[in-house]
Design brief:
four-stranded antiparallel sheet; about 30% strand; alpha+beta; rod-shaped; 2 helices; about 110 residues
Length: about 110
């Protein structure tokens, strides 16, 4: 009888511990997903057109823009760095509002 009681206490304690861990994990996962869902403002070349994404809305670029680091981006995709170097954006190139250039992540459909 004593062993049964000890087993019951241990089982109850373990169940309570796992339940608390799951709540913490759920909260952490929710915070991560909210962070990932938050859209960044950026400029990108897509299908030969310059596009601007602001607050999750994507629209065609209608004027030249200056990034916070001094880089200028023209409507035709020309990028003029603060140091005077110029380059042309290619499909999939992206630049955030701080002037950091990256490549667009490709979906599985695009890889085929």
């Amino acid at each position: 009888m004593k062993k049964l009681f000890v087993l019951l206490v241990i089982t109850t304690f373990c169940t309570a511990t796992f339940a608390q861990t799951d709540k913490k994990m759920d909260k952490m996962n929710k915070m991560k997903s909210e962070k990932n869902m938050k859209a960044k403002d950026e400029v990108m070349m897509k299908d030969g057109k310059m596009m601007v994404m602001k607050n999750g809305q994507t629209m065609e670029m209608d004027k030249d823009m200056k990034m916070s680091n001094g880089t200028m981006i023209m409507k035709d995709g020309t990028v003029k760095m603060k140091n005077g170097k110029t380059r042309m954006m290619k499909d999939g190139d992206m630049m955030d509002m701080q002037g950091k250039m990256t490549m667009m992540k490709m979906k599985d459909d695009d890889k085929k």
